[in-house]
Fold each of these.
Amino acid sequence: METKDQAYFKRLANQLMFDVSDQEIKELQTEFEILEEQIKMLERINTDGVEEMIYPFEQETQFLRDDVVDHTIAREDALENVKAVMAGHVHVPKVVK
Amino acid sequence: MKYETVIGIEIHCELKTKTKMFSGAPVTFGAPANSCVNEIDLGHPGILPCVNKEAVRLAVMAATALHCEIDPLVKFDRKNYYYSDLPKGFQITQQFHPIGTGGYVEIESEEGVKQIRLNRIHMEEDTAKQFHNEAGTLIDFNRAGTPLIEIVSEADMRSGKEAAAYVEKLRSILHYLGVSDVKMEEGSMRCDVNISLREVGTTAFGVKTEIKNLNSIANVQKAVEYEIQRQSELLDQGESIIQETRRFDEAKKATVSMRKKEGNVDYKYFPEPNILPIRLADDWIKEIQEHLPELPDARIQRYQSDYGLNDYDAGVLVNNRDLANFFDCVCEHTGEYKLAANWTIVELTAALNKANYKMDQNPCDPKHLADMINMMKAGEISSKQAKTVFEEIMLGKDPKTVVEEKGMKQMSDTTELLRMINEVLDQNPKSIEDFKNGKDRAIGFLVGQVMKASKGQANPAMTNQLIKEELSKR
């Protein structure tokens, strides 16, 4: 397993376009240690012969929605929590994929 | 060194539905930004996607027309990636159970008809549209959730021409089906081309580059041809090809690097737990398949066998579905199919271009054009007069009214024509003498004189015939 050192978190943060401080990395490391412990606990559960469950009900359906407009939300509501709006668009820093 | 080009193409095509793939928000091109969205499109907490029946119907139509095997059990998966065009942080797609597998498209290549195999067709949702500028990125979520089909070909194409022919053929099939607007310039059909070179005679694939978002069929060919040249030169110089995504710069007529691809991105696909597997009823699939509209190849065949059109005319008409539909309407009112094709292809197209009209703004009533063609054939108007009549038809007028109003009706009354002909002959003894001395051109002159005397209303073919008869009597 990869070492969860400072460089690891810096790289992850960079990939996710977050800026993290050294203090935040320390907190993340502590959280990850706990998470890893929990995962190890889960790994100890014997799942031999247990099939994965994806859906709450293991059954097929035939339902398809008719192509009829039901509702939209008002533009001002859609943009209400947006930090920056420009010409009706959500405005974010440029990151070309 | 001699290289073989290997090309595979992925095409994203927006389906022509009223609402989104998983929400009841409207799909409207050109609406004000962020005005056609709801909670599902924006990925708000607690939302549940609900599959659009019409999108599935259109996908089944496309898969059937492209000879794919249909999977009647519709399942979706999540493709996870983090980017600002994707509000949920994942795209709902069909990674593991595409609605169509296999299939093919037939294209005309230099070696004749060539089958380009398809790998799959799957349904998915579109992302938001982003506009990058100096100030940053502007996002319009109207496009987020629009139903798409992605059509993935096998790497069966070997040149820019074949790649362009494939995209053109696919575009035509999807347009005839009516499943999409297939407007590359508006982004309702988007094309990514994967291209690599390998030494002739080898089978292993070379390192590929991907050219993204080509916005016209002409650019598909240009981009591929540029890329073949670029990769060949690099390989000849002993350099290796870098696996990367490139785009076609129209101004430079060159592909330019967008980003390097370091290995395959892990999208951590897993089955979409919020959409239960949907079993499509066999009857419903059968009904869709039995009611497919006529496809381009079948229509070309019909134009050749039923209307006697040549390859070229049939091809030009079918290449433009609206033009072909218009031609069909004209043929409902006339049996002069070749004339109908000529007038549609040449005169109508030129008139529309001149007026800067598209086919959906065409003011010409197909019955009026058919009536005019019938009048020409019956000798009621000459082909020269028909051009004048056609100008009026393009203004919405009935050809019969135009002919009457302009007093254009062609003179086919033999008695009246004979009177005029004999007058002209009496006035031109030199031409009679010339004719008798073997100068056939004299007839042309005499016909011209009769046309002049009749103010262009004499039936030229009839006049020609009668002059010959009268000359033989003198």
Amino acid sequence: MSVQPAMPKSWRVDTKPHKFCPGCGHGLVLKALGQAIDELGIQDRAVFGCDIGCSLLAWDFFNVDTIQTHHGRTTPVITGLKRANPNLIGIAYMGDGGGYAIGSQHLVNAAARNEKITVILVNNTQYGMTGGQMAPTTLPGQKTETSPYGRDPEKTGYPTQGPEMVAAITREGAYVARGTVANLRQLKNYLKKALENQMAGNGFSFVEVLSACPTNWRTNAEETWKMVEEEMPKYFKVGEIKVPGGQKEGEANG
Amino acid sequence: MPDKPIEGEKRVFMTGNEVVAWAALAAGAEIMYGYPITPQNEIMHYWTRLAPRYGREFLQTEDELSAGFTTCGGVLAGRKAFTATAGPGNTLMQEPMSMAEAMRLPTVVVIQQRGGPSTATVIYSQQEVTMTTLGGNGEGLRIVYSTANHQELFDYTIKAFNTAWKYRFPTFILGDGYQAKMRESLTIYDPDIRGIELVQAEPFLGKPGVPGVDRPPTQLRNTYNVEEELYEVLEGYFKDYEKIAPEVAEHEAFGLEDAELVVVSHGVVSRACKAAVKELREEGVRVGYFRPITLRPLPVKALRETAEKVGKFLVVESAQGQLARLLKEAAFGCPVEMLELFKPGVGITAEDVVSRVKEITG
């Protein structure tokens, strides 16, 4: 028998290998999330909601109760669920199109109401499932199917600063961070802190994750990592943006 | 905290929106999600005042998309959840209700119809029949009760929760602005004393035990990989719907035995039609009355039997033939002539109906 890499306990083994493209970042985000669920021991009361777009491929990913919803609507479904049964841990998982475009009103208002849910938004700078169109997060100059000559900020604006926006409209009690698939240990900690924030009943928690889509980026491994590690952070600053009543990562121990 | 919102029964005089709030309480509704739109606002106003007294919850959402999807979330958590809307809000509500159809979620939605298309009027219409019965990118896998008066608003709102949770199809109360805003006498009651057993809600997600260890995980989706996969699911749904349709369908009728013309209407308009038919029959005009109470599914058997034996239907509605289209489909092949009295977005009186009938019968 070949050696299998260690999977999180909360992963559903019979649905692996997963359905994402080779090189996709979703598997890494979901690994970090699985580890966070394991470490917090919440497999029995977590409810995972996934959006439309590539995130829907996670509908049978975990040994966790799961609801796959509509494009942009995972936030209200998980909000409604959490309001109806506050003992559950509600996780809304979506892409940048779902969170920042079609479902932006839900993200803004759930954040403003300080809903006690955790939103995880995977940012791969374009719409993956529909074939690589421009998203609110597409980088200036980046070529996509609907910006074939490169995104022109004069015509279509600059990349949406999601966590910064969420931080600006939430009050104390919210947890907001931006992680990256290039630093999984850090990402797992952010996800864990976001979930802990919900478990403590503090308020809204939001983690954006910088991720990769080599299929639509048409990049090889080296170019993919360059995009994730060098290009995206020029516009999307990785780190904790808002931490309730505490210090941000790196500040705690001086 | 008082146990029951209504002890025994009592005679009251209230608006239809207030009736809906009391009925939802009596039906054991646990949470309402809502967004303001006229003419349904007072359902929320009364609910927000009453709900805390009985340990019930409310969330005001950012729009009707969210009101519908949070209602789906509440149902998934195993609570009797509902929302209410109208007009353009009903348009937005179609997206969440298509998910409810796809996943057989027992949502309850109260629609108080207003003028259309677009913003139109905040007052009244019967122009949301097509949308409420067949809306969304789906196949109309829903149950729609069209009420005519406040007593029915109370009775059928309670029934809607039972129907939804028993059969697991999204269920609608189709009212209108007149019913919403008008004050009427009715009897409100504890369903227990009428022998109405409330169907218990149960969670879809978050049942006891560790998924994958103590039980399989519940994983619900509305997206399929291949055509056949979707087809198989829908075939099952259609079979279920067909089976329950005769149990769910309701109608009322009179004067059919000797009628040469039958006036067909639904909702509040049927009150004008009922009064007109009674008056005409007293004058010796051979006219009958037929009213589907469920618009989805329609009472097809009773309707076709009537359509087989009378020559003419006069379809009366405050819309440009939305009920008529449903009737034509249901009565296809029957030798009945369909005549009309359509006043889209406008109320219809018994006098309107009497004069139209006399115009036809000469």
